[in-house]
Amino acid sequence: MISPSSLTRRLKTPSLLSVDSKEQEPGCATFEVRNPSTGELLARLPDMGAGEAAAAIDRAEVAFVAWKSLTARARSNLIRRWYELIHENAEDLAAILTAEMGKPLDEARSEVSHAAAYIQWYAEEANRIYGETIPASSEDRRLFVLRQPVGVVGAITPWNFPASMVARKIAPALAAGCTVVLKPAEQTPLVAAAMVTLAREAGVPQGVVEIVYASEGDAIGREFCSNPKVRKISFTGSTEVGRILMRQCADQIKKVSFELGGNAPFIVFDDADIDAAVEGAIQAKFRNGGQTCVSANRLYAQSKVHDEFAEKFAARARKLAVGDGFDPESRIGPLIDRHLLAKVEYHVADAIQKGGLIHCGGRRYHESTFFEPTVLTNVTSDMAVAREETFGPLAAIIRFDDADDVVRQANDTIYGLAAYFFATDHRRVWRVAEALEYGMVGINTGRMSSEAAPFGGWKQSGVGREGSRHGMDEYLEMKYVCLAGL
Predict the structure, then answer these.
(1) Which residues, listed in sequence order, are joined to residue 296 by a DSSP beta bridge?
(2) How far does the chain reach from its first CA to its final CA, in angstroms?
């Protein structure tokens, strides 16, 4: 059901764009996937619903029996082969990603590399699912703890990092012995489909990873949450949708892990290396055009260094070329859709109305969804840009005086995903790192994601962790065994 497009001609392995639609009846509805940069039609996919999702869940439940029974080494070898195929096809995967999401090709390559790193990590972690022995209180008993796979997992991934999110959910699930039904975002399903194709080419059996496509996720999400064969939901997306899924899972007390919204503070203290802080802020704010859950959303600069930081940061932002992701000069791609464009424009207009000043940018490009990298100063806490997650190339700089007060301001949000700060005084570094109410804190860096570290948030930014050895726990159940009569 893939349409002819320039993307197909660009790929070395066009078969990566194949779509398994065996559960879709002839003549049923389809939906379109378009390049947000050019509007080009990339694909028409089957628009599936609860029935197709239920059938995929049934196949995953059947496959679970054999998959969980494999040795850890056997699962590890298959996941390792999947990693190798991702690596071998990295350029094609990056091209698919850029075409459907719009991000610059270099960023797409980096994301595919990051996705592969997660798969490699969990290929290794598959061999490290250890149990426990517990000293017994009597001689005729032996006490053990086993760790066993949860079962069928319903995974829902977002559009902004469609390759790495697939890897972060599927790889640990497979390593633990679970099977997965994946619903990728409707804007970016093609790289997910390509990665599932490569998993099957690696030898992962049919049914172990199933994929369902849909133009909207409500019906699929309800099926995941209500179907008792699904034992766990893993979701990355907005806090609003996370609340809905949690409510829908409540009747069955279903195991969940959610990576939700953020409102990340980025604090520049007066003892910071300002040039390093500028570079860190460029990374934390403008990577993926600001369309990341860990994007720096509120930039705080202490009064002594505020003007220097703002001027240097705006100067760097002006140099970020905006354009099609396949243009090697581009550093900022399009926003994913007009809904997000409208939100960015509203945040700019609201800030200006309330006294904010534009240092650079502030406008869209003609009728497209491209938006100029924008820097605002004279920002106050009553502006929408300081209270809401923007999800675009808009940086709002807030002046502060007192170090303790800025930590209070940084924590004054329902979110607690990521925070950043730049400082050199070690006493300040430790005090602030411990005081920030966030699941992840970057100190003197604008990038901190690693497959070896736990990714996740506090408060209403999520439940559970992805990545690291802790990410395996999300897909395992603990069983205490008491053996008596010895």
Answers:
(1) 264
(2) 62
Provide the strand spans (E) within 327-368. 357-360
Q: Which two tokens stand for residue 278?
A: 């500028």
The catalytic site residues sit at: 259
- Under 8 Å between Cβ of 50 and 83: no
The counts of H helices and E strands in the chain are 16, 20
Residue pair 268/300 in contact (Cβ under 8 Å)? The answer is yes
Query: What would the pLDDT profile of 286-334 be if each residue is shown by its tens digit?
Result: 999 999 999 999 999 999 999 999 999 999 999 999 999 999 999 999 9
Portions of the chain given CATH number 3.40.309.10: 264-450
Return residue ranges of the chain for CATH 3.40.605.10. Answer: 6-260+461-481
8 A C-beta contact, residue 370 and residue 323: yes
| pLDDT tens-digit series, residues 107-152 | 999 999 999 999 999 999 999 999 999 999 999 999 999 999 999 9
Does the domain at 6-260+461-481 match CATH 3.90.10.10? Answer given as no
Distance of alpha carbon 179 from alpha carbon 58, whole angstroms: 11
| H helix or E strand, kind and range, residue 459 | strand 458-459
HSE toward the beta carbon, residue 73, CA cutoff 13 A: 0
In sequence order, the 6+-apart residues with CB closer than 8 A to the CB of 312 are: 274, 275, 278
Q: In one letter, which amino acid is 190? A: L
- 164 alpha-carbon distance from chain centroid: 7
Domain spanning 264-450, CATH architecture? 3-Layer(aba) Sandwich (3.40)
DSSP states of 183-205: E--TTS-HHHHHHHHHHHHTTPP
The secondary element (H helix, E strand) that includes residue 429 is helix 426-435
User: Identity (one letter) of the amino acid at 51?
Assistant: G
| pTM of this structure | 0.95
Amino acid at 38: T
